[in-house]
Amino acid sequence: MNCLICRQAETVDGLKTVHFERDEFRLVVNNVPARVCLGCGEAYVEENVAVELLREAEEILDAGRMDGVLDFRTIPQPNDTITTCNSASACSF
């Protein structure tokens, strides 16, 4: 797949760190599986990965925690389709 942002490079399987922010809430999730552009670093995650990331962030926020650092490998996950996070690897929800 060619990168939709820089249109210059192919994407390869890799792992990225994703940052979530909402008001005072901050969450960092390490080792998120993604297709990563070799040129600009843009990351594309499968739909099921995006759903699990958002679900986990909502659960942490609902529990009253205002920050956290997780490893994606510890989060249970379902199936596929591609979604994108911006080149700074930040997603908003």
* Average pLDDT reading: 84
- Briefly note the structural class of the backbone: alpha/beta
How many domains make up the coordinates?
Answer: 1
Q: Share of helix among residues?
A: 10-25%
What is the H/E order?
A: EEEHEEE
Radius of gyration based on Cα positions: 13 Å
Strand-residue proportion: 35-45%
Report the uncertain regions. none
Distance between the termini: 26 Å
Can you tell me about this structure?
The chain has 93 residues and is α/β, with parallel strands linked by helices. It has one domain (11-88). It has one helix at residues 47-62; strands at 11-22, 25-37, 43-46, 67-71, 82-84, 90-91. Strands 1, 2, 3, 4, 5 and 6 form a 6-stranded mixed β-sheet that branches. A hairpin with a 2-residue loop joins strand 1 and strand 2 (25-37). The longest helix is centred in the middle third of the chain and has 16 residues, at 47-62. It is elongated and about 40 Å long. It starts with 10 loop residues before the first strand and ends with a strand. The mean pLDDT is 84.
Which structural traits does this protein have?
93 residues, elongated, 6-stranded mixed beta sheet, 6 strands, alpha/beta
Task: Please provide a brief summary of the model.
The chain is α/β, with parallel strands linked by helices and 93 residues long.
Question: What's the topology here?
Answer:
Blueprint: E1 11-22, E2 25-37, E3 43-46, H1 47-62, E4 67-71, E5 82-84, E6 90-91
Parallel strand pairs: 1-6, 2-4
Antiparallel strand pairs: 1-2, 2-3, 3-5
